[in-house]
């Protein structure tokens, strides 16, 4: 998760001004890394070049789902979210569905895969 914390810090600090697309597929990001990324996506300033974040999360638990959905600020840069192949149980999926159904958590979400 140290690497994911670095990526999260760079996203939140707008340290990657030419970034247009972020794809995190085929990784084993742990719960703390997901939390750091969710916080960073909520804090990231708007960028005219930044078009899409694709977050493929696998092998995570209900704790990661709660970190994704408990952000007090929306994550406007998140457009694609792939949660296939994870270990969410009823509680994690319930919190995810509740957060996504309002449209406030991820207002620009275009694609969700579970």
What does this structure look like?
With 114 residues, this protein is of the alpha/beta class. It has a single domain, classed as Leucine-rich repeat, LRR (right-handed beta-alpha superhelix). The chain has four helices and four strands, in the order H-E-H-E-H-E-H-E. It has a four-stranded parallel beta sheet, with no helix packed on it. Strand 2, helix 3 (62-69) and strand 3 form a beta-alpha-beta unit. Helix 3 runs parallel beside helix 4. The protein is globular, with a radius of gyration of 13 Å. The two termini are 23 Å apart. The relative contact order is 0.17. The model has no long low-confidence stretch (mean pLDDT 72).
Spans where pLDDT lies below 50 across 5 or more residues: none
Query: Which sheet architecture does the biggest sheet show?
Result: 4 strands, parallel
User: Could you tell me the radius of gyration in angstroms?
Assistant: 13 Å
How much strand? 5-15%
Number of strands: 4
Supply the helix-strand structural class. Answer: alpha/beta
Strand order of the largest sheet: 1-2-3-4
CATH class: Alpha Beta
The percentage helix is: 25-40%
What's the number of domains?
A: 1
Average of the residue pLDDT scores: 72
Looking at the structure, the CATH topology is Leucine-rich repeat, LRR (right-handed beta-alpha superhelix)
CATH architecture: Alpha-Beta Horseshoe
Distance between the termini: 23 Å
- H-E string: HEHEHEHE
CATH superfamily: Ribonuclease Inhibitor
Query: Helix count?
Result: 4
Described by the principal axes of the CA atoms, the overall outline is: globular
